[in-house]
Amino acid sequence: MEAGSGLGAEDAVETALAMLRRREHSVRELDERLRARDFPEGARGRAIETLLRTGLLDDRRFAEARASSLAGRGAGDALVRHELASAGVDAEVVEDAVSLLEPERERAARIVARRGVGPKTARYLAVKGYAEDVARAVAGGSGDELG
What domain range is 64 assigned to? Predict the structure, then answer.
């Protein structure tokens, strides 16, 4: 146990496991959540090392699951990249996760089919992190470029 602290690595592992049972977390997210619960740096580090070694914590698995979830809720590639980078995921792992998604144009085409073609839909796509050329194609009125 850490000197001056009642919270050790075993407590940190148990707390982290409870968090991971609810959803995947990145290494950085888990460390931040443990820090917020006043676990000392040493205990957090040992807990994270244990979870990584046992495969219970994995940034690649987190990135793939999070990217899929975001894309399923209408996010474009830029938003997915931003969210994963904000969670502390390595750039190469982010790109790998994005590459596994359905192509952005196909996701955009479904949104256009549901919302209609026009400037409102183009703005919506831009806010959701779709590439500028996709939003422009929608704003152009035909939407033919998306299919």
Answer: 60-99
